Structures
1.
Amino acid sequence: MKMIAMTLVAAVGLVATSVASAQDALAKSSGCLNCHAVDTKKMGPAFKDVAAKYKGKADAEATLETKISSGKGHPAVKASADDVKSLVKWVLSM
Ligand code: HEC
């Protein structure tokens, strides 16, 4: 029984890690990481600071999606609307 529980914990850990790195790869291939980093300010704010700024705001996801996709108030990006959506979720989860 203990063995099964431990295997489950390990499997869940693996899934969580691979989701994080998939979005990291998407951020890289979409060019976000040319101007952003997770922890430090580059040309754009650190993603962790963005998450802190929008914490508790109900419309954060929609606001950021529009801002990034429309290219108004944010440099134009080549990511698709679906990719932007998933990247915004990732940023806000930090
Ligand atoms: C050419 C450089 C550049 C690229 C590429 C870029 N950003 Fe930004 N980003 C910025 C700058 C500069 C700001 C700060 C100005 C602003 O708030 O719009 C910013 C701000 C942001 C913010 C915070 C906006 C706010 O209202 O606080 C988020 C979230 C964000 N970027 C996400 C992304 C994502 C996701 C991508 C990739 C699809 C991306 N950025 C690509 C330069 C860039």
2.
Amino acid sequence: MNSEGHVLIVDDDSALCEMLEDGLSVKGFEVSTATSGQKGFEIASSSNVDVIVSDLNMEGMSGLELSEAVASVKEVPVIVLTGEASIQSAIEALRLGVYDFLLKPVKLDVLVLALRRAVEKRRLRAEVEQLRNAVAESTQFEAIVGESHPMKELVSLVARVAPADVSVLVTGESGTGKELVARALHQRSPRVEGPFIAINCAAMPASLLESELFGHVQGAFTDAKAAKDGLFVQADGGTLFLDEIGDMPMEMQAKLLRALQEQRVRPVGGSEERQFNVRVVAATNKDLDEAVEEGTFREDLFYRINVVRVPTPPLRARGRDILLLAQHFIERAATRANRNIRGISPAAAEKLVTYDWPGNVRELENCIERGVALAQGDQITIDDLPERVRAFESVAVEPDDLGGTLLTVQELERRHIIRVLEAVDGNKTRAAEVLGFDRRTLYRKLERYGIDA
Ligand SMILES: Nc1ncnc2c1ncn2[C@@H]1O[C@H](COP(=O)(O)OP(=O)(O)OP(=O)(O)O)[C@@H](O)[C@H]1O
Ligand SMILES: [Mg+2]
């Protein structure tokens, strides 16, 4: 039914209720009626009402009380009808959040106009709310794309670790999605309503890093014109993401450890400590175990941040995910650039799958953005890929040559000679021809490698 909206009429005068019900039904509204505030409240809270028209003075619950009660459970505009023409009561009603105020006897047309306005406003508000939620969702819960085995493992590990309030160390090559994982951990944690704050520990010298993390008091150093909270305090109740922690200077590592142990920081130049409640997620593309052995990363700090380790797999180990991600980035880039690019040509797809992606997902993302900008038809073709991707040839290594370990040239030669001999049924003259040796050389090699032909 294409109704103008659902109106609830609340008035202790049942004759008036009936009259308004008839009039408004004719105008296309769906109408419910109630002859007391309490009854009206029950209907409003249990059914989908767009707008309420209520008498002001009623036995029991008055129109204003009804308006207040409804406002506490849902957002429905209330139009108050009253026979009392006092400006005072009108002001009071509007102050209490009543949507509109009309005098009895009300003309049907006037009421219809007021109702239409209220219904329209409510629909708009619902629409805006919906849009806002959709945008918030798409920016907050940025999808972790991937269906390969290593990615399924990653996603399940994230889901298990996120709710636990433990420190997490995210490791992996550059561009594998470590920050994305850190955000996912925050979003799936009980701290989701709190802040997520990220800082790159490699990007600044120790002194600046200290004042960023711990804050500083006014005048602590030349540029400290005003006091500033550090990121630990700013992230209170939320998650602090320490990116590139492997590059944190040694002197800062000691201070960080102390802060984490005591859950307190002393701002630079200050004497009073500040408390914080923060979950730390750190990330690194360095081998921290090795850094600990080499003495460039504190072992005690390592144990503190490495309670659970979440490794992000390199893109080249994710198989068909490369194409899934490519499609994901194509759709995003095409929408942004307002271009009608739908996909990728089969030949270009093959190149993407073959390439080894040293820059991982970030490199793929850049490659696709460039491709979307260059593509002339509705597909990304080989010509739209960067030279290094187009020119890449995979080094085919036969599995039995590798056998899981790296071989010496001699060992490779030995195996190759055996294989050739087998292929020519032990005919040494044929074998020497195939191998490009003279017979004498072949005999020498058979002897040296102990091959019994
Ligand atoms: N599985 C994924 N699904 C969708 N997008 C991804 C995925 N992994 C990474 N990305 C995107 O790739 C880009 C690089 O990811 P991110 O910044 O998280 O990598 P990183 O590991 O922190 O890299 P670096 O070590 O260089 O800082 C980001 O734009 C991120 O949104
Ligand atoms: Mg990063």
